[in-house]
Structures are given as structure tokens and as C-alpha cells.
Design goal:
Its main location: membrane. Keywords: Membrane, Transmembrane, Transmembrane helix. One of its GO terms (cellular component) is membrane. Pfam families: MAPEG. By secondary structure, the chain is an all-alpha fold. It has a single domain, classed as Membrane associated eicosanoid/glutathione metabolism-like domain (Four Helix Bundle (Hemerythrin (Met), subunit A), Up-down Bundle). Helix 2 packs parallel to helix 4. The longest helix is centred in the middle third of the chain and has 33 residues.
Amino acid sequence: MSNTATTLGLRSGLFDRNLSVLAIPATFAVAFLPHTVKVILLGDRFDNEKPRAQTNFKVTDDSIYREKINRLAAIHTNGMENFPLFAAAVLAANFARLPTRLLNTFSLSYLASRILFSFIYYSQSSTSASVARSVSYFGGMLGSLWVLVKSGNRLNQLL
């Protein structure tokens, strides 16, 4: 057990081991999960031959169901659109050898912002919730831009 714990990094502190690159597939999974849930909820309405075609709702599908399906699609699209910026920031930060603590804090904060964004987007029903969703979106995006700039500045110092 102790060897497994050491291999998984469970014996060191959270900020002693660089987890930022591992956040890349985790963030991709968070972005892809809404699509998977959408496909499951659609069942036979999902056309796997034309996965990007407009959803064929049944006449009996109520507006709440349609809205939830459309929100899942929007969450997935937004996550995929933002994923490259995050991945580039993580890779640039690692290349620039930014401190592990900063890399982990950024990566885990970004991942949390995407989870929060997804949850709020799916369940929002008020203007205040939409504002919270936007704050979580911009927090993650601006964090990625900040890390990219910090990486660029560090690389300029090294040259």
C-alpha cells in the first residue's frame, strides 16, 4: 500500500508535486461530460450518423427537457472552445518552469471554475445565476491568459 500511495503522490503535499499536466485530461473530461449526458438523455433521438445535426425532438418533449438538452450542448461547446487556451497555458507554464505551487493552484482553480460554470449553466434560472456563471467563465479564461503572460515574461528573462 505504501508503494502505491507514493506512486500516486499521496505521501507528498498537494503543492510538492506538479499536477498541472494531469489537469489537462481532467479539464477535457469536464468539457466532454455534458455531451455524454446529452447523448444518454436523448436516447434514440440522438443520430450517431449525424452527431452534429440539430436534435430531433419529439412532439411530446416538453420545453424544460429541450432546454436542458440545449444547455448541455452549450456547456460542451463552451468547454471545448476554452480547452485549448487552458492547455496552452499549462504547457507554456511548464516549459517556462513556473513554480509548482503556481501551476497547481492555477490548474485546480481553472478546473473548479469549469465545474462551477457547468453546474450553474445547467441549473441557472435567474439573472444572478447567469452573472455567477459569467464570473466563473471569465475567472478561468483570465487565469489562463495571466499564466500565458507570466510564462512569456519568464521565458524572456531566460533568453
